[in-house]
């Protein structure tokens, strides 16, 4: 009698596990990330890149992207926090002059600034020495 009830429990557990795997596979074909929406782009549509901050693996101190003299957008710098999480994490997301075109091969985008003075050159060299890198956002990726 004991072997029969053990076998019955094992059968019901394996059936339950198989049902759970089946339900997971059936329902896993959807994608949803809270705060995001699906956008379909057409050929050569413009996508503007946003900039977040300068971060380094050497130091724990992040800097605003425009702390260094990068090219500014034509309409001026505008903050564009997209959701509450970005605000809570302290991300400072700004617009940028950089744009990309969907399914178009582009290898050159020229963006110029005024000549740097001695202090600005030292600052740029220091940030480079401290391994700061730019964090850019393209379509929330």
From TrEMBL:
InterPro entries: EMP70. Keywords: Endosome, Membrane, Signal, Transmembrane, Transmembrane helix. Its main location: membrane. Signal peptide: none annotated. Pfam families: EMP70 (PF02990). It is a multi-pass membrane protein. One of its GO terms (biological process) is protein localization to membrane. It is found in: Endosome membrane; Golgi apparatus membrane. Transmembrane segments: none annotated. The keyword DNA damage does not apply. GO terms for cellular component: endosome membrane; Golgi membrane. Belongs to the nonaspanin (TM9SF) (TC 9.A.2) family. This is Transmembrane 9 superfamily member. It comes from Zingiber officinale (Ginger). The lineage of its organism: Eukaryota, Viridiplantae, Streptophyta, Embryophyta, Tracheophyta.
């Amino acid at each position: 009698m004991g072997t029969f009830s053990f076998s019955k429990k094992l059968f019901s557990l394996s059936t339950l596990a198989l049902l759970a795997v089946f339900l997971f596979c059936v329902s896993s074909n959807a994608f949803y990330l809270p705060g995001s929406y699906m956008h379909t782009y057409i050929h050569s549509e413009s996508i503007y890149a946003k900039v977040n901050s300068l971060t380094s693996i050497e130091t724990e101190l992040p800097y605003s992207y425009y702390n260094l003299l990068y090219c500014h957008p034509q309409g001026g710098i505008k903050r564009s926090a997209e959701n509450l999480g970005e605000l809570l994490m302290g991300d400072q997301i700004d617009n940028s002059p950089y744009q990309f075109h969907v399914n178009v091969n582009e290898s050159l985008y020229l963006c110029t600034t005024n000549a740097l003075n001695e202090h600005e050159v030292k600052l740029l060299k220091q940030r480079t020495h401290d391994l700061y890198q730019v964090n850019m956002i393209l379509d929330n990726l």
